[in-house]
Design brief:
Chain lengths: 347, 347
Amino acid sequence: MLNNKYYTQDQHGPYEFYALGDFQLESGEILNNAQLAFAVHGKLNEAKDNAILFTIMFSGTSKNMEHYIGAGKALDPEKYCIILPNQLGGGLSTSPHNIDGSQAMTGFPNISIADDVAAQRKLLTEYFGIQELQLVTGWSMGAQQTYEWAIRYPDMVKRAAPIAGTAKCTSHDALYVDVFSDALKSDPAWNGGNYTEVHSCKLGLKRLANVFALMGCCTEFYNKEQWVKLGFGSMQKMLEGFWHAWFQPMDANALLTQAKKWKSGDSSKHAGGDLVQALKRIKAKTYVIAFEQDMFVPVKDCKYEQKYIANSELIVIPSLMGHFAMLGLLEEDFAAINDTFMSLLSS
Amino acid sequence: MLNNKYYTQDQHGPYEFYALGDFQLESGEILNNAQLAFAVHGKLNEAKDNAILFTIMFSGTSKNMEHYIGAGKALDPEKYCIILPNQLGGGLSTSPHNIDGSQAMTGFPNISIADDVAAQRKLLTEYFGIQELQLVTGWSMGAQQTYEWAIRYPDMVKRAAPIAGTAKCTSHDALYVDVFSDALKSDPAWNGGNYTEVHSCKLGLKRLANVFALMGCCTEFYNKEQWVKLGFGSMQKMLEGFWHAWFQPMDANALLTQAKKWKSGDSSKHAGGDLVQALKRIKAKTYVIAFEQDMFVPVKDCKYEQKYIANSELIVIPSLMGHFAMLGLLEEDFAAINDTFMSLLSS
């Protein structure tokens, strides 16, 4: 077990753990003594019908989406019980670096988006006793989980807002995952996943961060020197102060576990591999949210899936932050996303 | 000297050499006994006023653009004398791997786009006796050379067609160059540039190739499985049969020399760093050609520069091949580009 201080209550709390026990995975493997880390904002009402599920993106934790929650915001904890489950393998939940024994590090089993959703359902139904969700939402890999929810449990999901993500990982996105994973693995310190020190893979994490920087914001963001708006004096300072700083405290194998999950994300399996039929299963009122100039989940990819969802709209949010508009670093991005949640929740 | 059989007459000929002698570089350094490799199609007429200069992109050679030249095509060798100068450091001209002594490999001096253009001007004026060019064109790094020509020698360039490239390397493009250069350098066999065997850096070249695959064609290309049109049965087969196969025979240091040149490309220096004033120097009738869905030289970047060129038009060519439309692998891409050359040459 590697004691990485990044993945702690101190950095990402408060959060709780739900014990999944020996958890059956889609691959047939068992994740031993699995723990699902989750954060809760607000209280579940007596009818247990005021819950919102907010799933988490690649490299993120429940903490990173917290700014969307607050009094007067669309996700108001006075009104809703907002539950943010961390990904299995995401660092806080059971992950390669925080498990002991044969499943540690390279022994960590294959996890899928479907496994995350199955674990979340167990938490919601068995621990909370929830049978209906007012909204399921999530960004990027969170959108993959949102689609999996809406397709797999159509009767539980009243509204859905997959943000800048797809129900089935596209070929180009799979290539993107390969390129950034390989950038990380190129660090000799990664050592085939068998590193023994926390923060061994600084070089690989920096390389991965640069690939995210390349595709994460749009070209216009850089050409218009928008880093100034984020408080950075130069592009190099933004690379270091934002992208490198974001990834460098993380665990390499946790990121690679999430990357594999991202690449294999495919909710079409619930309709025998037919994506169109899978999307037609969705009963939720759905806002498919895309970010204009998103380079790894382009609007076109979101639109392609949205058109098969019966009760849906495509909402395109303009931002030079591209895929990373969701971080809400620019006030107008936050406002546009919050307004969209507001509109969906009042429909 | 590494005897790389890829950079030979057998693979890329016929081409000739022009001896530049000890060639003064913009950096102040001298490139010892420099050789400029160039190909010629057609004959220079007696008035020496039928010449077209076609400059070469990153990783390319004069051979790679040959398909645009032929009887009945816009670049007709019956009518024009078409000269294709290979980049310094491009593999055929003097390059890190084919020079002996102190300038070999890591001792290779810094070369700029301006140096290539100065070498080309020497060839055109001193060897051929040319004072006016009917057209200067080039793709990507070739567009950088085209801009440098039109801005630096406005009276020599009658028409210009910079294709999917910019007069000044953008911030995002510079980041792109860093990411693919770092992918190459991550190969331990690169050894800080001090490899001693031809084809040492297979792993790094494969990583670089994957970054090109990621950004080279647009996401829609992959999602619509357009690799089938290029004769590949799967995305993986296209990665191997096209992208890896393209880069793997090349010399790592030659590519890195070109990459540094790409990143530092900046014709604004002819107007004291003022890009707008530099572009206003251009007298040529100019078609700025952009490829729709080009992910590393987006239409917006081309349009930004085009609007400051007095006698110019922006031509946007749609193709799912994105930046790599120029290879003319799809017949419609070739036809659109050829038609554009035709239109410009008849104006």
